[in-house]
Design a protein that fits this description.
Layout: H1 9-22, H2 28-40, H3 44-50, H4 55-67
Helix pairs in contact: 1-2
Length: about 90
Amino acid sequence: MTDGSPPTWRMLQAEAVDGLRAGGVESPETEARRMVEEASGCTGTELVMALDEVAVERAAARLAAQADGAPGIGNDAGNHRQPQPSAGVALAGR
């Protein structure tokens, strides 16, 4: 991300892997994927397809959809898990 371009989910995931690895996390790739799934709202194949999307745009679209009451994207408070900070990880754009 040194070229000034907005971060993609792939870039943020790579940064998370590096930070988690530096922090001594046993499975940094798995943990980073889970973090990006939580942040992006995508899992499995959806995440693979979204990795090259600009993260900020995806998050903004997700927020707009939640505000409009779109079903299935985290607007049911009972099932929403608060993200937990991980040691050694500083994600760009936060």
